[in-house]
Structures are given as C-alpha cells and as structure tokens.
Amino acid sequence: MSDLYASIREACDFISSRAKIQPRIGIILGSGLGGFAAQVADAVTIPYAEIPNFPQSTVAGHSGKLVLGSIGGVAVAVMQGRVHPYEGYTPQQVTFPMRVLGGLGITSLIVTNAAGGIRTLLHQGELVAISDHINLSGINAAAGPNEDRLGPRFFDMSAAYSPQLRKAAVAEAAKQGFTLTEGVYLAVLGPSYETPAEIRAFRTLGADLVGMSTVHEVIIARHMGIEVLGISLVTNMAAGVLAEPIHHDEVMEMGRRVEAQFTALLTAMVPQMDALVSKTDSGKNSG
Ligand code: HPA
Fold first, then answer.
1. Pick the residue with more confidence: 185 or 31?
2. DSSP reduced 3-state for 283
3. Could you tell me where the DSSP H helices lie in the chain?
4. Whether 227 contacts 109, CB under 8 Å
5. pLDDT tens digits for 112-156?
6. Ligand 1 atom with the shortest distance to the CA of 246
7. Residue 33 Cα to ligand 1 middle (Å)
8. Angle formed by the axes of helices 2-18 and 96-104, to 10°?
C-alpha cells in the first residue's frame, strides 16, 4: 500500500505546483450542488483529468474540477463533483481525492450530497445536517492494508460528524432564518434507487436519509483525523413515501432551487469552522 502514499504525494505535488495555496478546509459538492464553487475567491481551477491518479466522474451533474482559493479569507479546496462506487470504481479510487485533500493539509471537511428523504417529516428541498450514518453500501473504504502514515488501523467513528460543527451549522441556519434539522444518513451502493420495502426497512433501522455517497469519504476523513460537517439536500422523498417514481432530473433541479440558501449557509460556515477546529484541534483520531 506504499503505492497509495506515493500516489497521494504525486497528486498533492502536482496541485501545489499549480496553486500556491495550503487549504485548511475541504468541501465536496454533491449532485446539483456544484454551483457553490463560484463562491471561491482567487480561484485556481484544475480539471480532475489533469491531476495524477484522480478518478473521472461519469455522472451528469458532476463536473470533475478541483477549485482552490479562499472563502471569507480562509483557504479552501473545493471538489466540484465526485465519483461513486456504483460507477465501478473501487473504494480506494472513490476516496483517493479525499486522501489528497488530507495530504494538502485540510483540518476539516464539509461533505454534501443529494439524498432521498426517508423520515416523512422531511420535505423536498430541505437541507439536513447529518448527525450520523449507517453504512449499508457493502464496502468500507478503509479496508485493505493500512497505511500507518495516514492513520491507524482501527479508528473511532463515535463522533464521525463533528457535534461542534453541527451545532454551529444549526445555529447559523437559525440566524439566516431557516431550520436545519439533523438526520441519520444511510448509504446504499446504488445505482438503482431503493424499493419501497427497502425504505420501510431503513426507516425501522433508524435512517432519515438515503444516498449513494458520503460515507466513504467520511470514513477516510476520520481515518486521517479530519473533522466533518455533513449536509444533505433532500432532493426527493425516498421510494414509496410519495406515490411517485424518482428521477435523476429532479435531483439536479432541486440543487438549483436551493442554491441561494445552500451557498449562504456554507459561505458562513467556512470561517466559523476554521476558528472552531483550530481552537480545539479535536479532529485528532488516535484510534
Ligand atoms: N436514493 C438514493 N440516493 C439518492 C436519492 C434516493 O432517493 N435521492 C438522491 N440520491
């Protein structure tokens, strides 16, 4: 697995040669949410295709660019688009960009996604702070030989989604005039959407949201001791909640509809996160 370490260094060196920025916060933009990258000041944009060892997205709505610059005076690295295991990528390929964000030195991460709403009180277009996850994707991105330079073999996931960052996000949303509810995200492999029976089962398990991403990046972020804020956009109600089929188009459309709210929340959170994480340094994960 020393190859992994060398591959990460190669990608980081390439990025550093293009952008003289040491990002403190990483942001991963999910389906339909890529427009947020326009908020980055003094942006240096690098297509994934140019970065050594980076996987290429095959999904509509995932443009595949790394944008480095600053938001509110804080250096950020924004991933506009991600790859998913259902595209045929290995868990290691899916999380390679996350490894590179860690290699560039980020101390906290905002991970976002489009999700189906399982909890019936949620509604389409609602933003939800992820409080925890259930990984039913069938894979764990940290499986395989452990690279001790990156993190420990066994590591804690009991506060995978940082309570302090979540609390700050909920407070910021209230300040901006909307309610940011909290919910448990359940990950499936996809690409098929779920059956109504699966959604009923997931509800019984304690899930509020369902999606096909995020948990892999969060596991790898925690392996590296990075603090995580997770935000889901409920793009549709999950299968069987409403008597309607689910379309990828509505997933994309909903992203555009909430863009202003999503942008305001994330823009305000970046400097707050930087202050909170550098003060406590609580992202350290010794396993
Ligand atoms: N299920 C799984 N993934 C999703 C959904 C869904 O209903 N909506 C957006 N991503």
1. 185
2. coil
3. 2-18, 91-94, 96-104, 163-176, 196-205, 215-223, 248-257, 259-280
4. yes
5. 999 999 999 999 999 999 999 999 999 999 999 999 999 999 999
6. 7
7. 14
8. 60
Tell me the CATH class for 3-280. Answer: alpha beta
Tell me: pLDDT of 98 over 90: yes
Whether residue 114 has its Cβ less than 6 Å from ligand 1? yes
Least confident of 63-72, 132-141, 157-166, 223-232: 63-72
Strands 127-135 and 65-71 come out as: unpaired
pLDDT in the model for residue 285: 54
**Ligand 1: does its nearest atom lie under 6 Å from the Cβ of 194?**
yes
Domain assignments of the chain as residue spans, ordered by start: 3-280
* Ligand 1 pocket, residue 266 CB under 6 Å: no
Protein residue with its CA nearest to atom 10 in ligand 1: 115
Task: Choose between 252 and 203: higher pLDDT.
Answer: 203
Q: Please count the other Cβ atoms lying within 10 Å of the Cβ belonging to residue 257.
A: 15
CA of 16 to the centre of ligand 1 (A): 35
Say if residues 107 and 24 touch (Cβ distance below 8 Å). yes
Burial class, 88, CB count within 10 angstroms (exposed 0-12 / middle 13-18 / buried 19+): exposed
Pocket test for ligand 1, best of 126, 194, 232 (most atoms within 8 A of CB): 194
114 CA distance to ligand 1 middle (Å): 7
Catalytic residue list: 31, 62, 84, 86-87, 114, 212-213, 236, 248
Q: From the CB of residue 249, how many other CB atoms can be counted at a distance below 10 Å? A: 11
Question: What is the Å distance from ligand 1's center to 85 Cα?
Answer: 14
pLDDT of residue 280: 62
Task: Identify whether the C-beta of residue 222 lies closer than 8 Å to the C-beta of residue 133.
Answer: no
Which of 127, 195, 210 to probe ligand 1 with, by most ligand atoms within 8 A of CB?
A: 210
